[in-house]
Please model this.
Amino acid sequence: MKKLASILAIALSALLLNSCMVGRVATKYALSPKRHGIADIERTRHKADSLRPGSTHWYDSLKAIGVMRDTFIVGYNNYRVHAVYAPAAKPGEANGTAMIIHGYGDNHLVFLYLGRMYRDELNYNIVMPDLQYHGYSEGPSIQMGWLDRYDILNWINVAQGIYHSDFMVLHGVSMGAATVMFTSGEPQPDYVRCFVEDCGYNSVRGQFAKNLKDIGPIPTDILNSASIVTNRKFGWRFEEADCSKQLAKCKKPMLFIHGDADDFVAFEDIWKNYNAKTQGYKEYWVAEGAVHANSYARYPEEYTRRVSNFLQTVHKMIEDGTYEQ
Model:
């Protein structure tokens, strides 16, 4: 997601133009970057291996024997969207199903480290979607997780049709984490039990404002203009995409993760998000010294343990009758 800052920097060069033009430029380069989707797969394969060595070999091996499979559905606004899925390492003893959601400019391949963690170490079935305009999915633009929540709700139903599990966790990183939080505020089937968000921003407007501020002084009306253009072109406004509003409606358990050295999504956003969830069980973990989306790479064993313990806590709450939703 760090390339978002450099993409937004292009908009800054247009400051001599009127604010409406700047808004159009910002929207185009932030939400419709040229390099994306299938054309960007090779880069993301290399990135997957840099985050956890051997990830693409693991993925290719499972695909070769038909364990990891592709599927497509018709998603939001009738765009064709893609996901891969694989059963738990020990299918007959699966602990549930994990849906893993990638970040800005990436796709399911980048987060194979989470797929391996859930499938091989925690024994969960896995489903890994490509959000619109990413990977093998269609779509007119990046939606920053906001409209993506509708596709995730569809994938929840698809995953249940495959695995028939009574326990599902949604786990996202960066923009994927925001997608999880946006989704958490929508009505959920009972089998969706909990959520994990890792370094998600608190709001789209707030994130864009931070990215632009990091570049240098800018007129405050750029984001207003970009939001108007986004609404006209893609049907949503920056102001709508607010995790706090969605989290306030979420009663199901959630684990919040953030590195305290994150200089891209502000570290303070974890507290905005954590405090916004006023109903139901919640935990947090601050990964000391971790930069953006780096908590697993820096602390793979502790990350796995924290997630495992959280899931076990939710399972126990269900078993002893203290789980509420």
The chain has one domain: 3-319.
